[in-house]
Amino acid sequence: MIGFVGLSHLGLSYSLATAAKGFEVLAYDPDAVLTARCAAGEFPVEEAGFGDLFAQHRGRIRYTSDETALAECELVFYSLDVHTNDRNESDPGPLTALIHATAPKLSPGTIAVVLSQVAPGYSRQLRAELRELSAADFYYQVETLIFGRAIERAMQPERFIVGTNDPDRSLPAPLQAWHAAFNCPVLVMGLESAELAKIAINFFLVSTVTTTNTLAEICEAIGADWKEIVPALRLDGRIGPHAYLTPGLGIAGGNLERDLVTVQSLAARHGTEAGIVTAWQRNSRHRRDWAISQVQRAFPTKNQQLVLAVWGFAYKADTHSTKNSPSLELMRALRGHRIRAHDPVAQIDAAEFRHVTIFSSPLAAAEGADALLVMTPWSSYASLPIQELRNLLRGRLIIDPYGVLDETQCRDLGFEYYRLGS
Prior knowledge:
Layout: E1 2-5, H1 9-20, E2 25-28, H2 32-39, H3 50-57, E3 61-64, E4 75-78, H4 93-102, E5 111-114, H5 122-130, E6 137-141, H6 150-155, E7 160-164, H7 173-180, E8 186-190, H8 191-222, H9 226-234, H10 255-270, H11 275-288, H12 290-298, E9 307-311, H13 326-333, E10 338-342, E11 356-358, H14 362-366, E12 371-374, H15 379-382, H16 386-392, E13 397-399, H17 407-412, E14 416-418
Parallel strand pairs: 1-2, 1-4, 2-3, 4-5, 5-6, 7-8, 9-10, 9-12, 10-11, 12-13, 13-14
Antiparallel strand pairs: 6-7
Helix pairs in contact: 1-3, 8-10, 8-11
């Protein structure tokens, strides 16, 4: 029996994937209402594939809020999402409390793996704290969660990165058996190395995102087109076909920002230099406001009240998360105007966004608007009939950062069309 403790996005994804690989799974959370909902197939997060995997493998997964049931497990993953505050600082408190509350319930010899993302040094400190409380053996493993692609990433991981107190020793058999079911490379290293490996991966991603956004802005200024440049980069072996080369509205979502803040904190504590992190953050804030700048450029009269259609609240497609969403920042900046908005999944706080009216369809939101802003690249928006927009919109401005709509068709219909990088 394999246990998952903490049924947030991470725990739900990995527990379903583990059941799909043929293991018997115990999915624990102290929230009895949550476990009852999950047992009925009602999951608290939006993620493609959750329902299908549950329907196919529900016979191998048991949801419970009874912590004594964890004694049945020979391998337990701690899989609670570690949330960040408004300054993108991690709050490991709920995870630590959950571990301290349940670790004493594990049977002696149980293999316990912290799957949640934690700062370097957390796992070693945790082992010291639990030495007198639990006979379980604790490890750390880097999670691969990506909102909107959680099941894909959980079922088909690129690699597993495992942190252990003694990297020269073989991993315990239950953990090896679980790894083998996913048929991917397993990298074993020290605890601090594994914790920092996750941050290192995200740092290289941030550097690519920032470089792409910087050069895409140059394209906008000089008349070049970033889409024409990307194939040249894909064919360069030093960059590769899988490099992240799509311009975006800065860094959003929380996980990348958290790692930047974590390294700034480590640098301040240990006297190392991390000025590049500040530069990345500054670039991200600058690009996040791109759509706002386009609106201000098109409508320079400050006392003019506009009606604006906004499609998308989520920080990216295929997720309900609005953490650090450029769309929400846009709507905050445009409080003096009326906004007609739509998102197929994500929700916003009506009390904060009183100037925003939410519609059940994107076309209804577009009716009578002076401009349309496509802020989340949902695939459903790409299939909408652009011809109808010509009849619905009062104005002729479309701000489409990610190029969701067909640019040629938009221009042929007489729209003034803007996307990132052109």
